[in-house]
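Please go through this chain and its backbone structure tokens and walk me through the local backbone shapes. Keep your notes short.
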Amino acid sequence: MVALPAMLFGSVRDSMKAPPAEPTGADVYLDTSGTDPNPEAMEGFKERFRDSNITPTPGAMFTATVIGEDFATKLFSADQFGDPNAPVEDVFDEKELAKIPEIEGMTLAQAKRWLERQATVKASDLAERARLLELIENPDVRKAAEKA
């Protein structure tokens, strides 16, 4: 049996007591409460994206809905005209980045991937909510829950 130095165990114990780090970047999820778009708005986004040669991906649609169509158009068309590895700060000014500070320090490609992930999380949340609503047997209670 090998004896391990006591200081090794001390550092392990100390690290276990440390508070967890604040989540940043890819670990942060946007608060999208109250941002579910109506179908007409979504169709409008899709049409205008296609007119701008932007594929209306879930991330592009999510960005247009939560942050704004102009921001989404600028981000999702930026790599057509420049370097996808350019920092977002090269494309967006401080006022625009204030709308979504989570992407500061990312490249355009990273920001797009992060927003695609956000869209996936949002879609899975909506699917789970719909599934749970279906479990409510009383139609009045279900209707009230749908509005909440």
Summary: The helical segments are 6-17, 39-51, 58-66, 69-81, 94-98, 108-134, 139-147. The first helix runs from residue 6 to 17. DSSP finds seven helices and no strands in the chain. Residues 35-147 form one domain.
